[in-house]
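Usage

Read records sequentially. Each one opens with the input sequence:
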Amino acid sequence: MHSNYGERRARQGPLGGAVRAISAAVALGMVAPLRRRDRDAGMTTAEYAVGTVAACAFAAILYQVVTGSSVVSALGSLISSALSAIS
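and closes with the structure output:
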């Protein structure tokens, strides 16, 4: 060991320069690739299939609601009242 090890350790603080080393690694972009490898890159085929089925089911329900007679009549009366208010 160096003779000035205690002085350096006291100067660097209780972590012994670890914070400085991590900060330098982050600044140099060395940590970001490690984080990117841990994350999922995207959905798998099964997730795409489930998402597609859910989107189709939602679209079918929305189509049934919008083309239902109550919604069509409500929209018609809303448009009629808006046009009568203008003129």
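Summary fields computed downstream for this record:
- The radius of gyration is 32 Å.
- The chain has two domains: 5-38, 45-86.
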